[in-house]
Automatic annotation (TrEMBL):
Gene3D superfamilies: Winged helix-like DNA-binding domain superfamily/Winged helix DNA-binding domain. CDD domains: ATase (cd06445). It comes from Pistricoccus aurantiacus. Keywords: DNA damage, Methyltransferase, Transferase. GO terms for biological process: DNA repair; methylation. This is Cysteine methyltransferase. Residues 8-83 form the Methylated-DNA-[protein]-cysteine S-methyltransferase DNA binding domain. The keyword Methyltransferase applies. It holds the Pfam family DNA_binding_1. GO terms for molecular function: methyltransferase activity. InterPro entries: ATL_DNA_repair, MethylDNA_cys_MeTrfase_DNA-bd, MethylDNA_cys_MeTrfase_DNAb, WH-like_DNA-bd_sf. SUPFAM superfamilies: Methylated DNA-protein cysteine methyltransferase, C-terminal domain.
Length: 98
């Protein structure tokens, strides 16, 4: 599958994540036709300018925010949607989508 087709699949899936829920790079990868979790992470890092995708709703398999340049902003955006982080920095498994 061509790279741009995988990106389209990833972006289509991310666009469906409802407010107040999160999913993981791996879960998104499994919904595509061959993307890896690493490719999903790369797609989130290289979103086109002016996009409306809820990139902040994608977290790592440990149900934590991966440390990166936008991690503080991601945490703020999730908290604004009612996502609560436990003392261990993890999101409750019940908030995972789908």
């Amino acid at each position: 599958m061509a790279k741009h087709e995988l990106l389209e699949q990833i972006y289509t899936i991310v666009a469906q994540i409802p407010e107040g829920r999160v999913t993981t790079y791996g879960r998104i990868a499994r919904m595509t036709e061959g993307a890896t979790p690493r490719q999903v992470g790369s797609a989130m890092r290289h979103l086109p300018a002016g996009h409306e995708l809820p990139w902040h709703r994608v977290i790592n398999a440990g149900r934590r925010i991966t440390e990166h340049g936008g991690a503080a902003r991601q945490r703020e955006k999730l908290r604004a949607e009612g996502i609560v982080f436990g003392a261990n920095g993890r999101v409750d498994a019940q908030l995972l989508w789908p």
